[in-house]
Design a protein that fits this description.
A hairpin with a 4-residue loop joins strand 15 and strand 16. The two termini are about 25 Å apart. By secondary structure, the protein is mainly β. It has four helices and 33 strands. It has a domain of about 55 residues.
Length: about 575
């Protein structure tokens, strides 16, 4: 019998010594069962349970067959357990010919107050590595006590080479830190309170101990904002953090920044002056030759203003064009901060958020002196009735009236009178086209420092073409092309290539095809990618046969394609 094919179709069948059908539970059970595909027996099972409807039910998900140069031939046989309407478990034992048997599983829980997912993989005595291999992941969030929310994100691998041996593609193999974080917070009309615990597992053996991140055990923050009816307001940012690491100074950092502001907002215009005072103090351990209680205090003055001009266009007035100039002034006096440690502070990537921030550094260990005027201009095209945005373009640049003196260790002083010119263009869902472009351009030497271009054509979830280019001077120069497209009534083609111009080679390439019939499908993917930081390559192929009715809950091939081809989703 074939429990899910149209009447008369016998592409695949279950042939069993005895088959029992229970229409009350919509389950079938076969004993001494053969799975026969196109007349060829492909799988024998002494016992099998299968659904009689398309509803989510426990049962076998059809196996995935593959091979890689790292692990040899691979066979994964998932089993889905529909525990309850709000929880399920997918067990996926995977046999690697060169390594052994990996026991993998994913448990999911949904409750009125939150969600949780626990994933685990364990391979006893990997024959190649000569050790036990494992990967644990926990993601959970819960809402309780009205406005309180808790969130856990934690990962752990058995060894630093785990992703190099088991990951799918270069994105996972380039992972350097695995987070373990617990977050608890509440948000009220005025106050927002948070408690945060975070540490990391470092996977790069070559990374110096002084370059590894600090654990924050804990980070406590409290912020508040009061706004009066006259436009005057006040705010408070505060934080207390205990930093831990095996190397370098450790200890507590306390930070308080009260502020006063005025919000003058009118239709199409706002003016927002603000004055605040930063107070930061430390209590340090393991800092020989340095003060154990250094501190910093300084004022911060900002003035932010913007105008929004708009007009309708088009023959029926269905388009709205806006022009939005913005000006932002920042004054922060110089304070010598060389005695302060560096726990979590660095230079952010050039972007519009950083361009309009008062502090040019990300983190609280340094507050950069500034006497800057930042100019920005944004233009938009929107649908007048719905507000849907078709096109957005932004330019921004900061003018420096004085040369900055506060520096990070090893940072080159920036003596320019102007910052990089930042540009951003977004074309959103216009006749199935999406375009995003970011540019950081150095006007003093007339060269591009950073750029990102992505172009997508997306008429449907299974019809997508992506083109992209990423450039950061001295570190990244990559082009990418990816596509998923149906060719004919039953066939789909997939492909992706990421090429590095600095390394003069492809970082990742794969090509695949799928055949879709009424009650079965076949997917084949062939891949070649960089598998570790030394540049070693891994080649492999993956084959999955889906017999609808036996494997109607999930698909490893679909998950891989959705993660690799942006915008792709199976029909």
């Amino acid at each position: 019998m074939s429990p899910s094919c149209p009447e008369g179709a016998t592409d695949w069948e279950l042939r069993a010594r005895r088959i029992t059908l229970d229409t009350a539970t919509m389950r079938g059970v076969g004993r001494s069962t053969q799975v026969v595909f196109k007349g060829l027996p492909i799988l024998y099972l002494p016992w099998i349970s299968f659904p009689l409807s398309s509803a989510r039910q426990s049962g076998l998900l059809f196996p995935m067959l593959g091979s890689s140069s790292r692990s040899g031939a691979t066979l994964a046989v998932p089993w889905y357990w529909n525990i309850a309407p709000n929880q399920d478990l997918t067990a996926t034992p995977t046999l690697y010919a060169r390594r052994g048997l990996n026991l993998g599983g994913e448990y999911r829980l949904l409750t009125p107050s939150g969600t949780g997912t626990l994933r685990a993989d364990y391979l006893h005595n990997d024959r190649l590595a000569q050790l036990n291999r494992s990967w644990l992941r926990l993601d959970s969030s819960a809402q309780f006590a009205e406005r309180w929310r808790a969130q856990i994100e934690a990962q752990r691998v058995s060894d630093t080479h785990y992703f190099e041996d088991f990951a799918d593609g270069p994105q996972a193999t380039s992972t350097i830190f695995l987070p373990r974080a617990l977050h608890l917070g509440t948000r009220g009309d005025i106050w927002q309170l948070q408690a945060h615990l975070e540490q990391f597992q470092t996977l790069d053996d070559q990374l110096a101990a002084s370059d590894r991140p600090y654990a924050e055990l804990p980070r406590l923050t409290a912020t508040a904002h009061w706004l009066g009816t006259s436009g005057f307001g006040s705010d408070l940012d505060s934080e207390l953090t205990d930093f831990h690491r095996d190397t370098g100074p450790t200890g507590w950092r306390g930070h308080v920044q009260p502020g006063l502001s005025y919000d003058f907002t009118r239709p199409g215009f706002y003016l927002r002056p603000r004055v605040s005072y930063d107070l930061t103090a430390y209590r340090l351990n393991d800092a020989p030759g340095a003060a154990s209680t250094p501190s910093r205090s300084l004022p911060i003055v900002t003035l932010d203003s913007a105008v929004a001009l708009e007009r309708t266009t088009g023959r029926t007035g269905d388009r709205l064009i806006t022009l939005e100039p913005r000006i932002n002034y920042v004054y922060i006096p110089y304070r010598d901060q060389s005695a302060l440690p560096l726990f979590d502070t660095g230079l952010p990537d050039p972007n519009f958020v950083a361009l309009f921030r008062a502090n040019r550094y990300a983190g609280l260990d340094r507050i950069g002196d500034a006497n800057n005027l930042t100019l920005g201009l944004t233009g938009r095209m929107l649908q007048a009735q719905t507000g849907q945005q078709y096109l957005s373009a932004t330019l921004g640049q900061a003018l420096h009236f004085t040369e900055p003196r506060v520096l990070l260790p090893g940072e080159t002083p920036d003596t320019r009178k102007r910052s990089d010119l930042l540009a951003n263009v977004d074309l959103t869902a216009y006749r199935n086209w999406n375009l995003h472009y970011d540019l950081a351009w150095n006007p003093d030497v007339s060269r591009t420092e950073k750029s990102l271009l992505s172009l997508q054509y997306l008429p449907a979830g299974n019809q997508v073409v992506n083109l992209g280019y990423r450039f950061t001077r001295g570190t990244v120069a990559q082009a990418e092309a990816a596509a998923a497209w149906p060719v004919g009534r039953h066939w789909d083609l997939y492909g992706r290539n990421v090429y590095s111009f600095l390394d003069h080679r492809a970082i990742e390439s794969f090509a695949g095809l799928q055949y879709r019939a009424n009650c079965w499908g076949l997917r084949l993917v062939v891949r070649d990618s960089v598998s570790n930081r030394a540049g070693t390559r891994d080649t492999g192929w993956y084959l999955q046969l889906e017999l609808r009715g036996l494997s109607n809950v999930g698909s490893g091939a679909d998950s891989f394609l959705q993660g690799s081809i942006q915008g792709y989703s199976p029909r």
